[in-house]
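Feature request disguised as a bug report, sorry. It would help if multi-protein outputs had a clear separator. Right now it looks like this:
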Amino acid sequence: MVGITGYSAYIPRLRLQRSAIAAAHAWYDPSYARKGRGERSICGWDEDAITMGVEAARGLVTNGRPDTLMFASTTGPFVDRQQAGIIATALSLEGEIRTLDVTSSQRAALGALSEACSSVRGGAREVLLVASENRRAMARSPGELAWGDGAACVAVGADNELLQLVGSTVESVDFLDHYRGAGQEFDYDWEERWIRDEGLAKIVPAAIARLLEQTGVSADAVEHFVLPATIRRAAANVARRSGLAGESVVDNLAGQLGETGTAHPLLMALHALETRIKPGDHLLVCSFANGCEALLFRATEAISGYSAPQTVAAALAARQPEDNYLKYLAFNDLIRVDEGKRGEAAEYQTSLSTAYRNRDMLLGLVGGRCTRCGTLQFPRTRVCVNPQCRATDTQEPYSFRDEPAKVASWSADYLAFTPNPPSHYGMIDFENGGRLMTDFTDVEVGEIDVGMQVEMRFRIKSVDRARGLPRYFWKAVPLRSA
């Protein structure tokens, strides 16, 4: 059998209160006041689909090297640069690994998951699938309220599966519920009733019926049903038409997360795995977009003893409420903000040759370990920094990505440019040796202090807007109790 052998999730810490969105638009439409319930996740200014994907995947690469890494998203920052390759480098997986981007449809993740299972059946040892989404919505559009940002990663293999794949099917139909043309900033949505009645209510039940017939599983044997849909009661209506029990419909996390695009069927399924699925249960996961992808899984006894590197529940709990609507607009480039002369200085051109030569350091946070005296240092140089050693050409690569660290010094600077003032930066000491001058992120004023424990997170360092190039590096984030 093949199936999902491990998983991890990442959700940005910031949660925009929908009441802030509703208050901002009440002048135009008084009925908006009724829409301000709950919250949605939003990326910080230094997060995007790639950084979230790295954070979701990093806990699953400790048990060996996967054969393939897939990245599913419709909002990757590059049109012509493989995003899966950036994630592989950040996780020190460069080399003999197949990397693949899957995009252009909200069902990209489930399509990639089906292909990953086929690849394992064909002999691959393990496939890592990362799904991540950071969608931009026009102000006062339905997506602004309904969507959220987040990522999920699953490992697919043939040993110790948590969820064994029973069967899968696909219904490919060029049904347009929404689209985003080349060069367009925002999705264009069609009328909700048409999507519900002609799309969801007809296409998805047909795919479900075929899948159940192929697998010999009856509708009443499906205990859990996942179907992301922002239309109210759409999933319940599809369940009824398909003969599934009403209580099988899995919570879509709308109130506390929002709909996370390609990542959402995985996040919903994994959250159900944590909260309601028992060994032996059947889980039906569907994704509706340009047709329907449907996969049927059976939970195994392995779920009882599995501990995910980052559960969906823990990612949801690690939240910071945000009620500044203008901050959300600024972080997503939905309004123009005068960044001053210091902001202009951040627009320098990146040397692509230098970035390539130092890619393991910049993307993977790889420093050095002296093979003679054991001293750790960042960055790696030809000469050991230990004054009692000073050996030359004795350093081997050493990753600081998962090294515990503490704050040695810090500053909160309102003069240095950052899209989210003040700029927090300082020196950190890694527990096993080595120090690094770095930025702090996901911190509030007055929160950082000397001696505080931090962990490293993959983030955007700066953006060359003139050439459309985000520059990535690692930043320190305070360790917080859940």
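(second protein starts here, but nothing in the output says so)
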Amino acid sequence: MRMNNNCFDTFPKRQYVLDFVLEVRKYLFPGYFDSMTCSKESYKAKELKLIEKKYTKYVCGSSASYFVKELPNLEKQIYEDLDFFFESDPASESKEEIVITYPGFYAILFYRVAHIIYGLGVAYVPRLITEIAHSSTGIDIHPGCKIASPFFIDHGTGIVIGETSEIGKYVKMYHGVTLGALTLKEGRELVGKKRHPTIKDNVTIYSGASILGGETVIEENSVIGSNVFIVNSVVKDTKVIYSQDLINKFIK
């Protein structure tokens, strides 16, 4: 899809896109958001048929069938996220509570749906999906970033994850974290370039930390403390508790 002068008429409306993601959520979690009057398998089959016939062609364009084929992988990832949420948060009383009420889980699910569509080259829709989640949760995840599963967001308000960020498995992230660009002074010349950091496996990033730059890598098993400002890479198994200029001995 490409933007044109009649984009208001060409592209799906916000409510339609929201309805699409919520139907995908119902498919992934049968019985969580409405009652099931049939078996789980029949319920999922009914939802899948609705998603295929009513939504995917309009939302995904000519690549609608690809989205449907990706649903099993999406389901695997989101259930890995769910298990990690439950293991990571002692305040959660059940996985059902996480699915229904946790803003971090909501934002991740919307991101994972948007990321599939982003990979199809569809304009506008992936960003609209993540912005719907952003407006509801305060969590801003660009659909183009790469986030492995499982991934855990606690609280979440104020998190920003930029387009070229890469996040590995078993990463934990708290509210107010920014994975951002070091500079945008070159503007459009930065399109397609790696501007945002890479976070490797088993990293924990506490609230308010800012990690900036496309060459910045936080290696495995590191812990980034609250309100730390980082613009250079951090070696594995490191605990960073002060801003970057105070801890040069920990930096590559």
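Even a blank line would do. Unrelated, but nice: The CA atoms of residues 159 and 176 lie 5 Å apart.
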